[in-house]
Every structure is written in structure tokens, then in C-alpha cells.
Amino acid sequence: MKPDPITEIPEDAAARKAVKPVVCYPIEMLPRPDLAAYRALRDNMELIEAIVIPPRDAATWVVPAGHFCRLVCSDGPQVGDLNLHNLHNINERFYSGKTRELNGTHVGLGDQLFSNFPYMRPIATITLGNMSACPGGDCSSKHSSDEVACYPLLAEVYKPTAHPDGWQEPMPNGYDRSHGA
């Protein structure tokens, strides 16, 4: 149980609570990926690299812009950390907090993984299947314990034979930190 507050409730507390919140990132204004175009590209791709990541280990690999990366847990559910960086600018990296704020805790098909400020643009898009922080989707505490089995993870990089019409890398959003706290 929490202790009683040591400050008095402001006289205008009810008026403050009645103010409609300001939505800083209206998700309905974000461009959504064309999943049909991505599906069409997956029909004719060339596997250019396959990396097996042993249990309790790590690996790095390059996924050029416009290519696909497929992560496969073939031997059983697996938990792992995913760090994404822009190959040409190591300062631009995956921003899990903003991605979670825009997509929810569990990302899935069609969700975009966003990079950090000042770039704040999609750094990856989930085009097939789902990613979950919970093996088997059960979110039990066992997925982070020492008693759960670990399995290898397969990372595959594919090169599409073409890009969707009009495809281009997302541009940085231009945030320059000139406003806000």
C-alpha cells in the first residue's frame, strides 16, 4: 500500500483532469506499408546469406535497404534481443520505446520498427508473421529464466529481384530538437 500524499490536491485538479489529452503521434497519419507489394516481392527472392546463431550467443549481419531478413526459430521458441542500425550511419538505430508507443507491446504483420531521433523513420517493416516477446505467446515468467531451453536462431537475408514501383528509402523526418522540453 502506498503512503498518503504529502502535498495537497490542487483546487483545479478536476479541471486539469477534464482536459482532453494531446496526441503527439497520431498513428493514423503514419504512412502504412503496402503489404501486397511486399508479398509479391517475396515470390521471387534470392537467398544471399544464412547465419545460424547458437544458443546464448550473438551474431551480426547486413541487410541492405530494400532487402528482406527472415528470423526462424526452427527448433523451438526462442527469446533474443534485436538491435538494428543504419549501415551508413551508426547513430541511427532501432528505437524500441517509440516503436512500442506507436504499435503496441507486441509488433506484428504490417508494423514498422522506427529509428531514434532525429531520424524517426521506419528502419524495418514486418512483412510476414509476427514477433513476440513471449515464446509461444504465453508471456510467462519462464521465458527469461535460467531453466528454459535455448535453441539456435536462423537469420536469412534475401535479395528481391525488383522493388515495388516507386519504392525508395524512407527519408529522415527532419526533427531538429528546436522545440519541446
Notes on the protein architecture:
The protein is α+β, with helices and mostly antiparallel strands and 181 residues long. Helices cover 12% and strands 20% of the residues. The protein has 3 helices and 7 strands; from the N terminus they run H-H-E-E-E-E-H-E-E-E. It has helices spanning 13-18, 35-42, 96-103; strands spanning 45-53, 68-72, 85-86, 89-93, 112-114, 122-125, 153-160. The strands form 3 sheets. Strands 1-7-2 form a 3-stranded antiparallel beta sheet, with no helix packed on it. Strands 3-4 form a two-stranded antiparallel sheet. A hairpin with a 7-residue loop joins strand 5 and strand 6. The radius of gyration is 21 Å and the shape is extended. Residues 135-141 have low confidence and may be disordered. InterPro entries: DUF1989 (IPR018959). Residues 52-127 form the DUF1989 domain. This is Urea carboxylase-associated family protein. Pfam families: DUF1989.
